[in-house]
Amino acid sequence: MKVTIDGIPVEVEAGTTILNAARIIGGDIVPPAMCYYSKLEGSGGKCRTCLVKVSKGSEKDPRPMPKLVASCRTTVMDGMEVQNITSPEVIEARKGIVEMLLINHPLDCPICDQAGECDLQNLGFEHGAEKTRYEFDRRTFEKIDIGDKIQLHMTRCILCYRCVFTADQITDHREHGILNRGDHSEISTYIQKVIDNDFSGNVIDVCPVGALTDKTFRFKNRVWFTKPVEAHRDCDHPGCNGKVTLWYKGEDVLRVTARKDVYGEVEEFICNTCRFDKKKTSDWVIEGPRKVANWSVISANKYDTLKPLPVVKTNPVLVEANKEQFERETRL
Amino acid sequence: MESLSNKRKLIESKPLNFWERAYLPAIASGLATTMKHFFRKPVTISYPEEKREFSENFRGLHSLKRDENGKERCTACGLCALSCPAEAITMIAAERQKGEEHLYREEKYAAVYEINMLRCIFCGLCEEACPKEAIYLDGDIVPADYLRKDFIYGKDKLVEAPLNQ
Asked: Can you tell me the ipTM of this complex?
């Protein structure tokens, strides 16, 4: 099937969603997604940030679709034409969605551990106005401990259901879900029941905001001061391949997360042993520094080490003069 | 030869007469000039005791502010340290415990907050970056000291005095 997204044609299989077709093209035209997660079956359709305009339904029925559609849930038709960033209507609608998501989300990014790698923060930065028009009290909750390693702060939750799907699909039995309806909905472990599954830590990674956070990393450091390094270990847990990102500050591993792709989705889920218990460099085989996008705050203030010029290396007098710098270079 | 510009002046150096040779009138007139300055307003000030008024946008020593209830505003978000071009600021965050609500405004606070005054260039970017209006460069000139370690200012020197004092 041939679809055209923002004027770029692409051939995809039948049954592909518009969002995934856009991801095949890649680049700026990919709609943002807060609730859709390619690794989780059934996710998507809740946050509405991926709204796009279908200006031509298909080759057989060229009428446009009457409303904006959620691209993560709408499958492509042959000859479909989709507008994402080329349509002012979509940009305007998305701005409204961001404001809507921020109605109950506290504006406490200076405190939140997710700041710097938060989808909602990026979305707000790109689309939202910098001030809120909401005048009423936001809903607040007490913090809940889900086990001794995960903390749930429902105040920040945007009800994307990703963690619920994770618990459903990665773990074999479900102990947490969403209680109540509408504005009263909240994530809860039924009667504060502890999740003791080996993969429960993955709910931290799938959370697009800072509602579920790692208690072993809580307030330890800001994300942009830590240095991400790719590493792996031979994990004896079946189902976990031990490929992770270590977040270093100096010599210490402050945090272990699964590796995330360009859309902020984890490549493979990791077990709790890898995530919470292995925080020594000796536990891991280091592969090399992680590539961080240039626009990301995580890559801020990371200076390249000064490399001596080739002419310096060939001249013994200059080598002697720059001895200290050479030593620093080899040590790093 | 005649000079082209005709600007050359001939200076005559006559031998000094008697009064000039005595030097006393010259000394007296010199002393008179000195004495005259005793009664004039001095142009200099004696610095540590006296201080000149700073301009309104002078940037001096940092201070960490408290809010109207006397709680510390700083939440250790790290944006000042991120924006600092001289990398002078470091901090360690801690979580506010129950019963400390009167001390800290947010649920996270800076347990350690240090500025190296030898590194600081007083550019004021930390002040601009701060989302909580917690840091201002509204203080004095950083005083001189003998040891390098004494220029690393901690929270004891940076945080404003509590309100009731």
From this structure: 0.74
